[in-house]
Structure formats: C-alpha cells, structure tokens
Design brief:
0% strand, elongated, single chain, mainly alpha
Length: 201
C-alpha cells in the first residue's frame, strides 16, 4: 500500500516537472526541470526494485549529462527574447502534438481495455544473492553489445557538435590565434630605452 502511494506521489511530481520542462521559457529552467524529472524517475525505479538503474540515472544523467547540457545552454548565448516570441508563435503546433499523443494513448488503452493487465499479480521477490547489475551487464555486453557501442558513438558525436557550436564566430567573441602567439618575437613586444642618469641638484 505504501509503495502504491509513493508511486502516485512521485508519478504526479514527474508529470508536473515534465510540464514545467516544456513550458519554461528560460532554457536553464528547462534543464533544471529535467533534473527533477530524472530524480523522480530514479525514485520510481527504486520502487520497482531496479536499484542499479536508479543510481545510474542519478549519477550519469544528472551528474554528467545534465551538467553538459547546462554548460552548452549557457555557452550558446541563446537570445531569450526571440525564444519567447517563437514560443507563442508555435504554441499551436505544440498543443496539436500533445493532443495527438494523448489521443494515441487513450486509443491504446481503450483498444486493450482497462482490464487487460492483471494488477493483482505482484513481482516475485528475488533471492538475496541476486544482482540486477550482473544480469543487466550480461544482457548489455552480450545481446546488445553493438547497440551499446553505437549509443556511445552517438554521445561522442553530440559532444563534438556541442563544442563546434560554441566555437562559432560571433560578434564580441575573443579567440586565440595560436600561430600568431607562437611566432611572436621579443623585439616586437619589448623595447629597451636607455635613459641617461641625471644628478639631483
């Protein structure tokens, strides 16, 4: 009973944070709402007995990926005024997409019926020696080894693209000219002036 109550509480918080994510006009606030979504999702993973996935969600996504997102958002120097104007301009498209997704979910639930799942059945508790980390590792590195490596390559491409976006030329940006710094000579930077000494009267 307590698990169900906690599930509904954190599920409601997750939906609220997701709504805040898509409605926030400041991209930094959207990223912070996404962090809250990850935390609530991790708690739901804990309630289902997937402790490893919950810890990975917090450590990897919140601790690494979201920090990268925040740095990229701050370095891109996004024009917030233009972003707010675009939000109102394309709001109808967002609402249309939302209604389409809701209609699809309702259609799936209606076609299968609300009694399609036997909610009276519960999960079978595993033994104390069972490790979901070991089971997940065996599946990832055997059956899904190639998709796992492909996901790593996609993340690498995303990081390179984010760095390339931040290195673009824009007004007021100060960049280093490495070749000019290396080829500098002391005679170009330092001038020695000989001043004759004078005696005080």
């Amino acid at each position: 009973m307590l698990v169900q109550i906690l599930f509904y509480i954190f599920g409601t918080l997750l939906v609220a944070c997701a709504l805040g994510l898509i409605t926030a006009r400041n991209p930094v606030y959207s990223a912070l709402f996404l962090v809250l979504c990850f935390f609530n999702s991790a708690v739901i993973w804990l309630l289902t007995g997937a402790e490893f996935l919950a810890i990975v969600l917090v450590l990897v996504y919140v601790g690494a990926v979201m920090v990268l997102f925040l740095f990229v958002v701050m370095m891109l120097d996004i024009n917030l005024a233009e972003l707010r104007r675009g939000f109102t301009r394309f709001a109808w498209l967002g609402w249309l997409t939302a209604f389409a997704v809701i209609a699809e979910i309702v259609g799936v639930v209606w076609s299968h019926g609300l009694t399609g799942l036997d909610v009276s059945r519960t999960t079978v508790p595993e033994s104390a020696s069972y490790s979901n980390t070991l089971a997940l590792g065996q599946v990832i590195y055997t059956r899904y080894a190639y998709p796992f490596e492909l996901a790593a390559m996609l993340l690498l491409v995303a990081i390179v693209a984010a760095i390339a976006l931040t290195m673009r030329r824009r007004q007021g940006l100060k960049v280093q000219d490495i070749s000019r710094q290396v080829s500098v000579r002391a005679a170009d930077r330092v001038r020695i002036v000989k001043v004759t000494a004078e005696k005080r009267p």
